[in-house]
């Protein structure tokens, strides 16, 4: 067992299992997908710590493993479903969902992050993940993982959900941040808070600056 394999197993046993993550498919994905492949080479030694890892030269970061995997557990991507990771940086979330059997797409508007993702997915053996710079045509998805925090509700992504589709996202900043799970019914999208967590903020969903006299 090499060092990263040992660190990955320790992450699963000592971080994920103690954070209400019990789904076998999610745990198996976290135990198999090499998270270090999605971190910058000089920060790969931090990949299995409980911290977000910045992706230099991009507007993205690798979310903490505890938050990312718990969000995916709540999304519950099923084999054969279409899963989207939005603003996923280097694509770790998409790789996890692909390992769980979903047809995974990474929509990453940030060009430097997208280049990192394309290389990382190959290194991780997850080359089957589709990577796109723009909204994936008229496609719709069963699950959407937003890999960062939003200061405003990401309503622009709701039309991409299929009926009974699920979207999960961190909303808010700092101690006020919480993870919201949205479900699309036949005619509406409703959301509920599922746990408290923070994540790096996505520029696409920052609150517009208010003008002060």
TrEMBL record:
<dbReference type="InterPro" id="IPR029063">
    <property type="entry name" value="SAM-dependent_MTases_sf"/>
</dbReference>
<protein>
    <recommendedName>
        <fullName>Protein-L-isoaspartate O-methyltransferase</fullName>
    </recommendedName>
</protein>
<dbReference type="Pfam" id="PF01135">
    <property type="entry name" value="PCMT"/>
</dbReference>
<comment type="similarity">
    <text>Belongs to the methyltransferase superfamily. L-isoaspartyl/D-aspartyl protein methyltransferase family.</text>
</comment>
<dbReference type="InterPro" id="IPR000682">
    <property type="entry name" value="PCMT"/>
</dbReference>
